[in-house]
Amino acid sequence: MSFECAQRLTEILLALALLQSALEHLVHSRQNRTVFAMRIICCGLLLGDLMTPWALLGLFLTAVFLLHRFQGPYNGGSDKMGILILFCLGLSHAAPSPFWQDMAFAYLAVQLTLSYFISGRVKLMNPEWRSGQALSDVFAFSAYPVAENLRGLANRTGILCAMSWLVIGFEVLFPLTLLSAPSLYFALIVASLFHMANAYLFGLNRFLWIWIAAYPSLIWFQDRIFG
Known about the structure:
Layout: H1 3-28, H2 33-47, H3 52-69, H4 77-94, H5 98-125, H6 127-131, H7 133-141, H8 157-173, H9 181-202, H10 205-225
């Protein structure tokens, strides 16, 4: 995948992800409606490839404002990833040479890879994750909208232990998938299904779209470094 294609695809996917978030806020809340309306306009400009650097800047500045307004990420980790993507895209447009454009976009790919690896490493060091107890607690006690019939999984310790190790193994080994294009594509499909399951079971839908928005950078990076 060429740099231009990966950059543009990232912009489109990011705009769609942020547009969904802004529209949901406008529908369900009356707070900061002006800010989210501005974000919708910026997303429209980004989708239309109109004044792209200014649209990215507008989205970045409103994201920083929302960080201050809500005293932290409004949507948790998905907001952090969104700001990272905006930052890297903005730098890639403002960079004075192709080399620095590549470096800005490569930084996004590296951070995306580390997001999986570090998450897996943290789980690996946690005895509750290694035993499956962490997943058991999620199904048994969490406030996420898990269906009642799924709460029974909290007692299936063997299944949850196996699921825990599958998640840990996938995340820790994720950097190795960069060694070949087929392995990376397979890993991204698995990761998408993982985020989709989290969206369905726990309502974490914004993680799904924002992480997928960063995938083109990883496909480009793999081809650039290992292809």
